[in-house]
């Protein structure tokens, strides 16, 4: 059986980290197709803390299902809402980070928030 080679070209530089060490770096030269999703693996502990903070800040019922893939818009949040600001402040306090307003506005899901947090923690400890 012949091996298939898949090549990805994207629009901006990207790096993949494993326990703080860069394993692979590539340059993005064109848009990622909608059917292709790139996701960083984050610690389950980080995702769980983000879930806890989101549920607490929004006063959600314990039985309300919120997962890593939950979009903030599904929870009724809009980018400039007070709830969003309070969630970001809670995340900054919990993880000891500072999140730039532009980056905070880009967060769409709980998973994305966890990925950004781990990226900021890595930058802080580097």
Protein model, in words:
A hairpin with a 2-residue loop joins strand 1 (13-18) and strand 2. The radius of gyration is 17 Å and the shape is globular. With 126 residues, it is α+β, with helices and mostly antiparallel strands. Helix 1 crosses helix 4 (110-125). It has helices spanning 44-57, 82-95, 101-106, 110-125, and strands at residues 13-18, 21-27. It has 4 helices and 2 strands, in the order ββαααα. The protein has 2 domains: 8-38, no CATH class; 42-125, Non-ribosomal Peptide Synthetase Peptidyl Carrier Protein, Chain A. The chain has a two-stranded antiparallel sheet.
What is shown here, in short?
With 126 residues, this protein is α+β, with helices and mostly antiparallel strands. 40% of the residues lie in helices and 10% in strands. The protein has a two-stranded antiparallel sheet with strand order 1-2.
